# Entry
Amino acid sequence: MRDVILTCPLDCPDACRLKITLAPDETLGEKAVKVTGDPSHPFTQGFACAKTVHYPARQYHPDRPLYPLKRLGGDFVRISWDQALDEIADRLKTVLAEHGPHALMRYNYAGTMGLREGTHVHAFFRALGASELDETICATAGTEAWVMTYGPRYGVLAEDVPHAKLIFLWGINSLTTNSHLTPWLKKARKNGAKIYHIDPYQSKTSLFADEHIKINPGTDAALALGFMHLIFRWGLEDREYLQEACLGSEELREAAKDYTPEKVSDITGIPTEKIEQLAREYASTTPSYIRVGYGMTRHEYGGNNLRSVLLLPAVMGQWKHRGGGVTLSTSGYFQLNRKKLGAGHLVKASTPRINMTRLATALQPERGIKAMFVYNSNPVVVAPDTARVIEGFKREDLLVVVLEQAMTETAKLADYVLPSTTFMEHEDVYTSYGHTYLGYNPKTLNAPGEARPNTWVFQELGKRLGLQEETLYWSMDQLLEHLLDTEHPFLQGFTPERVRQEGSVRLNLPEGLLPYQHGAPTASGKVQLSPAPHYTPDSLQVTPEHPFRLLTPPAHHFLNSTYGNLENLNQAEGGEPLALMHPEDAAPLNLSTGDFAHLSSPQGSVLRQIRVHGGVQKGVIVLEGSWWGLSARDGKSINTLTSERLTDLGAGSTFHANTIGVTKA
Ligand SMILES: Nc1nc2c(c(=O)[nH]1)N[C@H]1C(S)=C(S)[C@@H](COP(=O)(O)OP(=O)(O)OC[C@H]3O[C@@H](n4cnc5c(=O)[nH]c(N)nc54)[C@H](O)[C@@H]3O)O[C@H]1N2
Ligand SMILES: Nc1nc2c(c(=O)[nH]1)N[C@H]1C(S)=C(S)[C@@H](COP(=O)(O)OP(=O)(O)OC[C@H]3O[C@@H](n4cnc5c(=O)[nH]c(N)nc54)[C@H](O)[C@@H]3O)O[C@H]1N2
Ligand code: SF4
Ligand SMILES: [Mo]
# Structure
């Protein structure tokens, strides 16, 4: 037995350093048997989450694809790698000859956050001139709101949070989705901080907070502008900061005039006295820290919702104080050289772009896509409008190749399934969106069966197609050298050797850095308050047929759809997907906990078990988790109900913007 330390590859801000215990194994040499956190890592602090401690069970799952599979009729048959690669290359040559490169698309997201297996592999598609994928399913509304205001995403560091005296956890279920922030929140609380959770339903984070503020979905812009209205009325804004560090403060002051506490109370469902109390506390406490999640961005006006909140610390000059400000992400600190990462330099302005949130539409036959490769993603579960997505996957004239570690519902619809390695079985390098350590993992374990890294698959296909693009064939060393080829001070002292040797290297950030103390690295050098944000009511309004709003946030024991195939984690989430609803909404429908109901939206309908829950905002239904459809009684994923509607900024997904009807089954 021995322990190794590796970075968790999953799409989670914490990017933990994991302590993994390996035991001898007859076939593989060694096998992972236990996962916990590295006790010496300052951010991981010795614990892994409730999900990833079960990683060995998913890595050695009996259904994990271990050999290339080809669909023959309704079944899969095992074939050799040579046969799989030769046949796929031949099919691609035909598609390219008959339809041109735009008929080929990739569909990928963040199954691994590794820059090599997750991002650099796009080089194959760019070398061919395939249609580009706009990766909008998660963060683009938030990113655009931040970047237009502050430039790079330099969020307040978790290490500085203990200085804060007032904390808003706003549209984030951080105890579930950013669990390594919790120790820092606890330290702040010990130092006297008060913690509020602003969210439409009561989650683990609400119970941890001192107070839960239940807000109507999609109304955060009104609340934030309501705070500003009072702050300006009371004259408590930081005039000096607005004057010196910001552009557009007069416009913002004008915009906030409309948002009286009475109006804001009507919109948000929060009592006027509470709005005044929160605004007063925010305006009179320094440092104050806001941790925003993506929850409020997953609405039609999600970009403006988030942006309104992001402006609060500017109005109060909180960026001048250690622990003051707001965090959406810490990605901006990773100032790597990404020019040729994924061969991004090959993308032409004329290359057609596919918005991944609209996969269902992209797969309509008339759009002309003839071949699709899916890697690091499970779109049949996670993409909106599932029924139409499945229809697309089933097209006879579409070649579907899925690279997977698990026999997902997406893999089951493939023409070819190619077995993939996990983070313990391949080499990679990792950034983080919750801390500032660059992570590196060597290949540590032999993969079972014939699983291969994504990189290997695309290099092999590249050779068969005669591709000459050199970045496609880069080794890890060449990629690392490229990424670190920069003069940026945050990366001073970083060499490939050091990164490999230390495994987790903190960015070279100046001690006590206050990134927006005097302005922001935007084009003007100032924090951009202009254009002032506004609250706009959703065009999607409840109707007699669809009288409820449905939210579909993450579950504690899954990471998106990852881990959805582990029975014990399904049980920990209640055994099957549950629809939470307020007692006063349930009673008139004669629904009690344990009853079943049909939930229906304009996109489709699902059958779900009801759990009556006083912690949900009235008129709102919450269904936690991207469960595998297979775990639901009707075999349908929750995205059967969601739509391809896009956000106001960033053309992002709107997974919390649904109106549905509920009828007892
Ligand atoms: N355990 C676990 N951790 C995860 C994930 C997971 O699936 N499971 N997913 C990972 C990924 S990919 C991401 S992007 C992050 C996402 O992590 P979060 O940002 O925490 O998740 P969101 O889905 O954005 O929802 C967060 C909260 O926003 C609330 N919300 C919805 N609409 C509104 C609104 O209009 N206003 C306000 N104030 N709140 C609203 C929801 O009720 C929910 O409690 O988590 C990552 N971490
Ligand atoms: N209704 C609803 N839908 C949502 C959300 C929501 O809140 N509500 N959240 C959305 C968000 S925030 C996100 S980020 C997306 C996430 O969507 P995805 O990024 O698709 O995330 P997962 O569902 O975890 O699927 C990742 C898949 O990648 C595979 N994988 C992991 N590592 C590798 C690898 O190295 N190679 C290969 N070939 N495969 C690998 C895993 O086995 C897994 O099946 O879902 C979105 N969908
Ligand atoms: S999923 Fe997140 S919290 Fe869990 S081990 Fe991975 S990085 Fe850490
Ligand atoms: Mo995400």
In short: The mean pLDDT is 98.
